[in-house]
Amino acid sequence: MKVGLFFGTYNPVHVGHLIIANHLAEHSDLEQIWFVVTPQSPHKKKKKLLDNHQRLEMVFRATKNYPKLVPSSIEFNMPQPNFTIHTLAYIEEKHPDYKFSLIMGEDNLISLPKWKNSEVIKESYPIYVYPRKTANSAASLTNNSKKITRVDAPIVEVSSTFIRQQIKEGKNVKPLLPLKVWEYIDEMNFYK
User: What is the pTM of this model?
Assistant: First the structure.
């Protein structure tokens, strides 16, 4: 089975994540997209994150009606912070019959050289890159590698940071979130 790994803190998961993941599930050779909920990104501060299981619950609720989109807690029992290269080794050991690819935005591809063992990642795993509005173009990076595929997915400029800020300010963000995620956030009074 070909699986795309869509890493993120998902704090919270929003419609942009679903649009990109569903586009890849329907318009690429990937058979499933795993939303890998990251307990702690090496590039983000932990204090702003909801509990791991609360974020996993939001991903579960968001993907429930999409059989090709699968929530994953695979990083929850790994040493923190999570480095992608370690997760890839671990996930391959757990699922030796699967072929794994990475899914990332153009902005992450630009910062990929700063990742731990980035050359090994680029040489060993296919990478599907979706467009983002960025000041720098990743076109030269995608042109130089046979393993990197630019995906003609819709450009969705919604961020979890923006959503959290809007909730804190008392704004209505319901259209930016899957309904079940919005209901959970509202019920639990998250981000206020």
Answer: 0.91
